[in-house]
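TICKET #2291
ISSUE: user wants both folds in one file
ATTACHMENT 1:
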Amino acid sequence: MKVAIAQITPKTSEKLANREKMANYVEEAARASADLIVFPELALTGYNCGDCFFELAEKIPSGESIQFFEKLAQDLNIHIIWGMPEMSLPGVLYNAAALVGPDGYIGSWRKNTLPGHATDKAGPGAFPDRRFFKNGSGLEVFDTKIGRIGCLICYDIFFPELARLLTLKGADFLVGISGSPAFEKDIFEPLIQARAMENTIDFVYTNLVGHEDETTYWGGGCVYTAGDAARKVPGKLIAKADYKTEGLTFAELDPYDKSIRPVFPVLRDLKNEMYQELRKAHGKLA
């Protein structure tokens, strides 16, 4: 499988312009024979839309952007994942990701965990999630012609339980998309490798890049394989995008190759008691 990381700088609230830019990247990826192209969190609208989110959000799967990318995927024989605001009911929004392929709409995910922390370095609007979006619940794994895919959206990646859940549900590879600002780079970047290593699973990650209003994103998309069985090392980096510029980064993956798992058997060594104790301990926080 050939995957393309599409790192872009969206124009805030300019959905049509962003869609046109994304379509150009999809066409470029298809010309390079990519099977999957992955865009960042809220790539369709930008992150700093404020109250305009309520006007820009669309129904999934009936919205016009789903239909737009469905046709593109069908015409170009490619799978596409992108971030967008979803309207469930009037006034009820989710920070979501959608997946379409050559046969049309496949599925969507909703961001499970919404950041509420802030720092002076974040800049205006760096974490607007809790103001505009409702927490998602449940994480689906979708069957496709290129394997079973699970997706995490930005802050979700900070929670190892979510990546583990998708892995145990049978995902062949994980996709992470984010709109992570520059001050988070050193916090965020090691987690991507850790999620691949601790689950012995391929991980495809892309982030917004450049400047959106006063927010600067750190880019840095990457692809990790499940691991190198010969060297007995999980989580091998095979592609790395630039930290500052837009563009495509390509990688070749075999999502069905899990030869690392017999030599690094973290999944085998899981015990039910771990999760039972975790649930008990977490219950004491309530």
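ATTACHMENT 2:
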Amino acid sequence: MIENERNIRKQLVMEAVRRMAVAARTAPKGKGIDVIEIAIVTEEDILRLSEKMLQIAEEKGMKFFLRDAENIKQADAILLIGTRQQVQGLNCFHCGFPTCAAKPEEVPCAINSIDVGIAIGSACATAADMRVDTRVMFSAGLAAQQLNYLGEGVGSIMAIPVSATSKNPFFDRKPKEAKV
């Protein structure tokens, strides 16, 4: 039997993304409390995400959202990592407030945000080990947050589009202009 790599590439990318999700889940968490949410986005949900990014670009005037909205269409899958907000009771001052009780609810707990960063690092290290192409995008993460892809109340979402091509499509990107 002969298997051409082109015929199994998407299957291999999906295996890599699933391993990235496990790496994000098993990454260390502040105080050992897991408030991380993780999901894998594919096919029509990538297109919905792209459309939302175009809408955000139009509403906010953030031109790089136009580029990123086109760019994520080249991904076989997108890994989303975000957090439910839960103060950790450390009174660590990382959020800028002297105590957790003094922190306004709309200000994210810094420990939760750090946990997202550590999970992203673990996921991207796994992607590198699996030799798939990635890029961390807050633009696609914000769109996923507005679409509630990780559920109501989940914030600080970052997106990691994943592909396996002869050249990483998520680097050396050209800016896109708005259609007039």
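RESOLUTION: both attachments delivered.
EXTRA DETAIL ON ATTACHMENT 2: Residues 35 and 84 are 5 Å apart (CA to CA).
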